[in-house]
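Quick bug: ABC transporter ATP-binding protein output formatted oddly.
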Amino acid sequence: MALLEVEDLDVRFYTEAGVVRAVDGLSYTLDRGERLGVVGESGAGKTVSALAVLDLLDEPGRIEGGTVRFDGESLLDASPDRLRTVRGGRIGMVFQDPETALNPVYTVGEQVSEAVRAHTDRSGDDAHDRAVALLDRVGIPDPTTRATQYPHEFSGGMAQRVLVAMALAGDPDLLIADEPTTGLDVTVQAQLLELLDDLAADDLAVQLVSHDLGIVAEFCDRVLVMYAGQTVERAGVEDLFYDPKHPYTAGLLSAVPRIGDDRDRLSTIPGVTPDLSAPPPGCRFHTRCPYAEDVCTKRDPPLATTDDVTHRAACLAYTGDLDGELTFSVEIDGDDDRGERR
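Here's what came back:
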């Protein structure tokens, strides 16, 4: 049994401009010790889906359908008290921006200690000692002294480590990290990924939400690609990067700069993400897809099996509705990605 099972998750935002289907039929699983990367453009639904798993959506967002099971337990049916036990306890969350996630008027030690008290039976000096130990575990030097300092006294990378320490307070089985490396320089990014790598080695499952494909390629075992609230591709990390099956994924990969790249300009995906209060009929990517046919404007493609049973893509090329399959030649060493129909 998978540690986390998400099936047909449907999240909508009720706004004055209309109902926005931010997440539409999302399904995936995550095993113990596995590292899943969730990628896509801004507005794809990556963060919203992660928040929905923990029931952290604010109004006007609502979960309107689907199931979320953690270790066999339905989280969408759980009581608020039970959710508080699981959230921050068995499931830790590392939020994107430490400047807003950390309270500026409390010391770092107080904030980590609060998380320890909330999710363990420790209190007083025992909770403080545990907080210092957690700060040490995530690589903060001189943790005893640093625990007495305030968030503004920490660099961005160190503040992000504090968030990881707080997420580990309840000794979780799953860590959800939402864009944890955003705004950090490459050296600090590498250090943070090394930390997550060490934690995952202890059988901790990690769901990494990111727009940085390089980070996902380095860290993750499997990748889920989202576009306009839906999954468009799901595969093992090597299969996805070396043999993408969806035009959107191939477009994302072609836009990544690489060492030795001699192109004058990086590739781009034409057009913009559709308005999810009035998405286009059929495939949501067809307005930007260079291979779209008339049927793509009428049928919403399922997440279909490709030539590899573990590699799935939401494209009608794999359901027999188009003239052959799509194949992409992805040159990781710097040449442009090329797509063709076969």
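Actually, after a second look the formatting is fine. Residues 330-342 have pLDDT under 50 and may be disordered. Closing.
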